[in-house]
Amino acid sequence: MDQLLQHLLNALILGSTYALLGIGLTFIFGIMRVVNFAHGELYTFGAYMVYLFSVLLGVNFLLSIVIAIVLGIMLGALLEWVLLSRLRGADIDTTMLVMIGAWIIMQNAEQLIWSGVAKSIPMPFPEEPLSVGGVSVAWSRVFVFAVAILLIVGSQTLIQRTRLGKAMRATFQDRDTASLMGININMIYLATFALGSGLAAAAGALLGPIFIVMPTMGNLAVVKAFAIVILGGLGNMKGAALGGFVLALVEELGAGYISSGYRDAMGFLLIILVLMVKPTGLFARTERIG
C-alpha cells in the first residue's frame, strides 16, 4: 500500500507540470487553430533561462523562475508577431510547416549557444525529504507541485474571470462575430500565443532543475503535450489539465509495476487506446473553452 501511495504522489506532482504543458498547447490550438510544434522548445527555453539567471548570473532561484516565465511570454509574443501574424487566414498545413521550421531553428540555436552538454540546476531546498507515514517526497517536488497548481488555477481564472479571457472565449466561439463586436483579433492571438508559450516555459523552468537541462529535452516534452491534448480533447483546457494527470498516473504505475524502461511507452499505449475508443478525447465537450 505504501508503494502504491508513493506512485500516486509521484504521479500527482509530475501530472501538475504535464498539465501546464497541455494547457499551453490546447490554449493555442483552441483559439488560434495553430499546431505549435515549437512548444517543446519553449519548454526548453524556460529551463535554460533558469540556468542562465540562477547558476551563471547568481540571481535568486525563485526570481529566476519568474524571469524565465516572463521571458517565455515575451518570446511567444515575438514568434507570433514575426511568424504567425503574417499567416492570418492560411491553412493549417502552412502554419504547421512554419512552426516545424521554428522548432528546428530554435533547437539548433540552443545547441549552438549552450552546447550539447547537459546542465544541472541546484535548488535551494533541504535534501531531507518530507515524510508522512510510509510516503516521502522531496521538498523540491513539493515546490514544483505548488507553483504548477498556482499557474493552472491562474490560467483558468484568467479565462473565466477577466475581460481578456472573455474576449478569448468569444474569439474561440466565433472569430468573425467577435471582430464585428469590436474585439481586436490580432491582439487576442498575440496574447493567446504569448500566454501559451509562458505556460510551456513555466513547465521547463520547474522541471529543468528536477532533471537535467539539454537542447533536446523539448522533443519528448512536445510529444507528451500532444498526447495530453489528445487525451483531454482539442481545445478543452480542463480536459488538458486532467489529461496531464492521467498521463502521469499511467506512466508512473507502468514504471513502478512493469518496468521503468516502459514509462513513456505506457503513456502512448493509452493514447492509442483512447483514439480507438473515443477519438475526440476522454474529456471532450461541445463547448471546449468557456
Automatic annotation (TrEMBL):
Q: Principal localization?
A: membrane
InterPro entries xrefs: ABC_transp_permease, BCAA_transport_permease
Q: Name one GO cellular component term.
A: plasma membrane
Tree of life domain: Bacteria
Transmembrane regions listed in the UniProt entry: 12-35, 65-84, 96-118, 138-159, 180-204, 210-232, 239-259, 265-284
Where found, per UniProt?
Cell membrane
Query: Keywords of this protein's UniProt record, alphabetized?
Result: Amino-acid transport, Cell membrane, Membrane, Transmembrane, Transmembrane helix, Transport
Q: Tell me, which GO biological process terms does this entry list? A: amino acid transport
Tell me how this protein sits in the membrane.
Multi-pass membrane protein
GO molecular function terms noted in the UniProt entry: transmembrane transporter activity
CDD domains the UniProt entry points to: TM_PBP1_LivH_like
Family to which the UniProt record says this protein belongs: Belongs to the binding-protein-dependent transport system permease family. LivHM subfamily.
* Protein name (record): Branched-chain amino acid transport system permease protein
Which organism is this protein's natural source? Aminobacter aganoensis
Species lineage, top-down? Bacteria, Pseudomonadati, Pseudomonadota, Alphaproteobacteria, Hyphomicrobiales
